Amino acid sequence: xxxxxxxxxxxxxxxxxxxxxxxxxxxxxxxxARRFGVGRAAARAAVQELERRxxxxxxxxxxxxxxxxxxxxxxxxVPPSWSATIAAAGATPRxxxxxxxxxxxxxxxxxxxxxxxxxxxxxxxxxxxIDDLLASWVHEWIPVDEVPHLDLALHAVDSVDQVLRQTxxxxxxxxxxxxxxxxxxxxxxxxxxxxxSQPAWLVESVSRDEAIGDVLxxxxxxxxxxxxxxxxxxxxxxxxxxxxxTPHRVVTPQ
Length: 254
Prior knowledge:
Residues 3-69 form the HTH gntR-type domain. Keywords: DNA-binding, Transcription, Transcription regulation. InterPro entries: Bact_HTH_transcr_reg (IPR050679), Chorismate_lyase_/UTRA_dom_sf (IPR028978), Tscrpt_reg_HTH_GntR (IPR000524), UTRA (IPR011663), WH-like_DNA-bd_sf (IPR036388), WH_DNA-bd_sf (IPR036390). This is GntR family transcriptional regulator. The chain is α+β, with helices and mostly antiparallel strands. Helices cover 28% and strands 35% of the residues. The chain is built from eight helices and twelve strands. It has helices at residues 5-17, 29-36, 40-52, 82-88, 107-113, 150-156, 160-168, 186-192, and strands at 56-59, 63-66, 70-74, 93-104, 120-130, 133-143, 172-182, 200-209, 215-224, 228-232, 244-246, 249-252. The chain has an eight-stranded antiparallel sheet with strand order 4-5-6-9-8-7-12-11, with helices on both faces. A hairpin with a 3-residue loop joins strand 1 (56-59) and strand 2. Helix 1 (5-17) crosses helix 3 (40-52) and helix 2 (29-36) crosses helix 3. The longest helix has 13 residues, at 5-17. It is elongated. The model is unreliable at 238-254 (pLDDT under 50).
């Protein structure tokens, strides 16, 4: 048997699964082995190849299902709102607030905020869901003087972008963003229920008030790569940005 037989099987299955709705259960390794007349090792390798291509997602204890990745678009012309971006891609967003606390601004974020280290900021930790999948683990920092009672506001509205627009009457716009892909730290792997070898997107972002330029929020988001394809779109609003692209990183300076 050809050493690449599993790739031929993966190609065949990939074409067939493209016609199936996401969430459709995929045949078991035993069923694939019988269908194609191969051993379990070849069938397992074919399923692993489909998983590497993000065609399927395996859920421990439940089985293997047809996967769907959505485009998460990052652009100056797109509001920096997780919920709005996910909804625009045709999925159902949901955010779960894990904690809101007031802390001194970490020194590592002082330059991005253009404020002295130690200034009072809200630190918000949230989980983001796409449909029913826990897709992202998010840390956000918002100056206390912008939204003094952010914890109460997030009980009514689960979007920080909406809170800023409706409560503070500002128009947040993405001013700086860095996107990379890497294996997350252990805490993120645990929260997102990922295996230790799985990569994820890391998006670090700064949002400003479109009218006067004040920094409104900094965020750091880990997102499952099998749930989202991050798309960075450059436009000519404001200053023309230089872009450095490497196999692992797209950098859009402020």
